[in-house]
Each structure stands twice: as C-alpha cells, then as structure tokens.
Amino acid sequence: MYAETLSNDLKSLLNNTLLSDIKIKGNDGVEINAHRVILAVRSEVFKCMLLNGMKESLQEVIEFPEVSSDTLHVILEYLYTGRVTEQTLTIEMVAEAFHGADYFLLEQLKCQIIEFFKNHLRNNNVNKINISAKVLSRLLECMESTNNEFVNLLCDSINSMSLKSIEYFNLNFKALEYILSHVKREEGTKVFSISEYDLFHYVIFWAANEISEEALSFYESCLPSSKTLKNFNRNSNVSLNIYNIQGHAKYQSTMITKTYPLLNLVKLERIHPFIISNIIEPLDGLIDSKTLIGVYRKQALLAGKHICLNDISLQWDDNARGSNMYLKSTSVVVSNSLSHEWIRTAVPISEQDIFEWDIVVEEICDCFWVGICTIKEFDVDYNSWLGKQAYGWVFGSIGVICHNTQEENGPYTNKYGKEFKKNDRITVHLDMGERTCSFSINGERYPIAFRDLPNEIYPAVSLITSGRARIEPRQ
C-alpha cells in the first residue's frame, strides 16, 4: 500500500512544473518537465549526461532527436515509478518504446514492454500475426541491432503461422528479409508452413503491392495460386491461363529492384520444374539466367530421388507440450515426466500433398512414440499418452501402432514394425491427398499404418522421462 502511494506521488511530479529544473524534448518538439535528481539516480545514461561535465549538464532543455515525446513519456514514467501503465504504453508505439528503453539501457523496462506485448497478443489471438508483423517492421526501422529478445519473440509469433496470412502492407522490406533470413538460419528447419512456390508467390505480390494497386491487380490476375497448380497436376483437364508477359514489362525494373534480395532467399530448386519453366522464368529478369541454370542443374542431380515440394515448418511448439517436457532448441524436446506426455509442432499440415520428416531418437525411453495428431474440434490433453486419444496416431518403440486405444500400459496387439532404439531415425510419410500415414526405420519402409486421417495434421511425439526427440527434414 505504501509502495503504491509512493509510486503515485512520484508519478504526480512527472511533467509537473513543481520544482522542475530541466525539460526533456523529443523529435516532435514537445517538451516534458522533469527533475535532474530523479533522472540521475534512476538512469546511468542521464547520470552521465548531468553529472560528468557533458554539455547536457549545463542545458535547461535536453533534446533527443532519436525518440518521440510519447516514447520519452514512457521512459520517464518508468524512471519515476518503476513501471509503465497502459495509458502511457500503447500497442501503436510499443516498438518505439522498446527502442527507447534500449537506448537508455533500461533492461527491466524492456522486459515490461515485452510482457505488455505478450498480454496484448493473448487478448488479440485472431489477428496476432498481423500485429506482430507490423511491430517487427517498425522495430527494425528504429533499431540497428536485431539481436534482442523482442525481435526473436516477434519472429517466433510470425513463424508459427502461415506467411500468406500477413497482409502485405504490414511487412516492410527489412522485416520480410529478416524473417526469411532468420527462418533459414534455424537448424533443421525449412521455410514456413507453405510451399516454396507460395513463398515466391508472396514475395511477388508483396513487391507489387509496394508499387501500386494496379501492379498488384496485374500480378494477381496472371500469377496462378498454388491451389490452381495442384489442380493442374491432379487433373489434366485444367488449363493454366499463363499471363500476358507484356504487362510484366511495365513493372519489370521496379520489381527487380524490390524482389532481388528477397528471391535469393527462396529455394527455387524445390519448386517443380514445370512451374519454374512456365510460371517463373517468363517473369523476365526477376530470376537471372545464371541462377535459373543453377536451379535446373540441382533439379537434374536430384532426378530419381524423392523431393518433397511442399515444405513444413519443423519446430516444436513450446505452448503445446506436456508440463514436464522442455525444449533444448526449436527442434529438440526432452521429457522429465514419469508418466506419458506429448508435444506437437507449431504449424499444421493441411495441403493436399506428400510430406515427410524424420524423428531422431537422441535418448530412448520405455515409451517412445512417434506420430501425428490433430487438435481441430478437440480439447486436447498434453499430459497424457497420445496413443489412447481419438486425436492421436502413433508408432511406438516396441514396434506397435496405436490410435484411440485404452490399453495405455499394454498389452499391445497391433504389431507394425520392428522395435527402434537410441540413434535410430524414424521417418513419417504423410500423404494428405490420400489421407494416409506410414513409417520407416533407418530407411526401411513399412506399409500404411493409418488411413482416413483428418484434413489438418501436426507432427508429434509422446515420451516419458529421459526421452529426447529431434525433428528434422527427411534425410
């Protein structure tokens, strides 16, 4: 109670002319009344300015061209009271506030701003990816360094969902480039939850939107969606309306400038050769001839091998796991639980294609289960054995498969493959077109294990103590 009263009393001094002996001025020209003694005691930056003979020590007004008066108000409220309120800190200025806290070396304030943002996302779950994209764009405009917890949080929020759900105007160039580069640096992770062509598709539309509505309308009218291309692959009666290349010439120069660094982050060799030759190559200049030759060469070298053209984001979801499981990295999960618990990835699989990934048994346990799950229309329990649930389909280390069974501790009768052990590599083969799933152990493939799967699936593992599982793209 006393601390609350003291905080309120100190807050009443903020921007109060009573005993004020200095003014703080932002880049918008607005001045805020303050007190030297409070600033010097509460901030090392202000202490150096006011007490170490710097020019600011003699000034009645200190100007900060790097930040606005609204941001300075957040800084001063924290310095005076030890906290910031939602009346001062808003989602519209959260990026600038974090930049200000970083500029003034206020680590605790940075933590408060991050918590404010997390709470805002929890209360705005429907549109959180666009909120995160907008804040990330503004933050990267403000700050030179990207090595901080807030940038990582924003990227994690964006990467947990499909890139194509972000409205184009919410991502600036720096943010889009950083997201792509950041995702590519994640060990064992492929790009987003969409196919590589969808990524190309998004970059083109984003750049066109930067030019004009007319440019966006043109590329939308002529660049086929991945759904159209899938229909073409599956139904020979579907014809593609390949666009009038003359229209592209109107925007060619500007599009090359805007897309060149971004398209370098797209793994074109994972896009079907038909799409490369008939859809991408005619966009003259966007992909230079040397790069295209390299793409065709890589595809030729991969001929005869299985290429998963639709990539999935292989990252465990730290918010979708048993309470006694923890992540060593985005791709490695460890269990400390004496009873069954499970975890799923952050991004679902819902496209009509073949998806494959590996689960590496880094540490075996008595009950090590590899499989898939769904959460659609289910109230899932992560502190349980996934194999007994109607929303789980798993292959166990004892060589059996289970789905919706009540025989949690055996005996298990549905024999499927051989037993697996530490360092074994379990490959999951998911055919979303046929809605089937099968497994391999160290390259030895077994028949279809499950059929009639739902239309939205997550990779998953179910473990008990000492079990450790790594998820990777198929080797």
Automatic annotation (TrEMBL):
Q: Which domain of life is it from?
A: Eukaryota
Signal peptide residue numbers: none
For this protein, the record's InterPro entries field holds: B30.2/SPRY, B30.2/SPRY_sf, BTB-POZ/Galectin-3-binding, BTB/POZ_dom, ConA-like_dom_sf, SKP1/BTB/POZ_sf, SPRY_dom
Q: Give residue ranges for domain B30.2/SPRY.
A: 294-475
Residues folding into a coiled coil are none
Per the database record, which ranges form the BTB domain?
20-88
For this protein, the record's SUPFAM superfamilies field holds:
Concanavalin A-like lectins/glucanases, POZ domain
Supply the Pfam families for this chain.
BTB, SPRY
Protein name, UniProt field? BTB-domain-containing protein
